[in-house]
Amino acid sequence: MQLKELLKYRDVVIQCHDNPDADALASGLAIYRFMEANGNTPEFIYRGPNEISKSNLIIMLKELEIPITYAPDYDRVPQLLVTVDCQYGQRNVTTTEAKHVAVIDHHQVTEKLPQIAEVRCTVGSCATVVWDMLRVEGFDPNEDKKLATALYYGLYTDTNKFSELSHPLDRDMIDSLVSVNKSLITQMSNSNITLEELELTGRAILDYTYLEDIRCLEIKTEPCDPNILGVISDFAMETAEVDVCIAYYISPDEIKFSVRSCVKEVHANELAEFITYGIGGGGGHLLKAGGTIRPEKIPEGVEDIIYNRVREYYSMFEVLYAKDTLLDTSKMKMYTKKEQKLGAVKLSDVFEIGSPVEIRTLEGDIHITIDDETYLMIGIEGEVYPISAEKLDSSYDLTGFDFKKSFEYEPSIRNLATDELKEVLPYAKTVISPPGVARIYAFPLDHWVKLFTTWDEEKYYSGVPGDYIAVREDDPHDIYIISGKLFDQLYKPASSGISPFLT
Ligand SMILES: [Mn+2]
User: Fold this and answer.
1) Architecture in CATH for domain 3-189
2) How far is the CA of 239 from the centre of ligand 1 (A)?
3) Is pTM, for the whole model, over 0.90?
4) Fewer beta carbons within 10 Å, N or C terminal of the chain?
């Protein structure tokens, strides 16, 4: 959906979830300011049994002039109701009758969504969703310092001070919000927990569960500000016997958790995704991550869900170190690579030689200095990686044709010296990788594997049932995982090598 669709309605109410947090307040504020700028001032409310009392939120309401009203007994029926940071019908938002409903959110979808809805569950905050929608409308939040600060603080608090960020769009928003009042952010984040919550932290730590065989610490707290989970898990990770820590709480509306890992065999973001698979959403990066589970998705009961999923995670994976592993190729079939059309960008076409740049991709940021020798490759799923001119020349045929494709997140390049930002794809040319001569053995996986390849012993690649495990015919330790989704696009069965017609 687009924000301008909301402007068709004259009588609009924006509603946060009950017990609103900074993200809900920021998202609602942004929609409010957008509509106001277009001559259509809405009402902005929250409901539920509790009035906002947390000190950081009270500072936020006052300093950022958020025009929200506490309306526990709201009974007017507006033409359009917009719920932010939640979905209409969920139990964490008191139902307000309305003729039409719109939903803008970043949580896992649990309700039937109305026609006007924008839910992106891979980004870190609802503020990010609204910010991106404002961008489409050409509305720059930087012109309103208070709005920019609110959006920034919404993402900041929803991702544990940016430590559990996973989507590049979140980083784009942080970079673009240049007019943020940083000292107010500091002030709010230092009024984040109450003395009662400090005590709660102490009680929770005393009551830990230690899973000795996997060196994992689980700490259950009473429902609290989610940021406390990050504080607890960061602190608990200092313990010598602890490799992985999960701090969580269970409330009637949600189960929230933070994960930390300090061992290369467990990626925190993967564990968070595993814990929430099908019942919520989670992410982050290798060392820090977090997530939310919706209790209504687990009818069998919520009490042991974290413990059970962690146990399941550990029992499911086989860890393989390619340098010490030999696969039984007698059960595997032989394949060769199909011809591939990929994209290549000569970096010195984008920015001057010598410019330090940051390339933002779905997988993370890459920092390099532009020279005459480096290209960027764009793979079939939009994955981006640098390659030398020499390697490009020897492995691919350059066509000179434009490379036209669209991806979930389009990579961009920022010149760090001038701050100029450019899209990558308009500079891309099509290159063809000829069908391979090298043969591989491959076999579909029937269980979960974490593979440390010979070329990266620090970071594993995960394979799930349906993916393929493969090894080169000429190098028994060059073992890798190929995505099941892409396998047929990338490989074809190898011919036996001897044509039957030539005998
Ligand atoms: Mn949120």
Assistant:
1) Alpha-Beta Complex (3.90)
2) 30
3) no
4) C
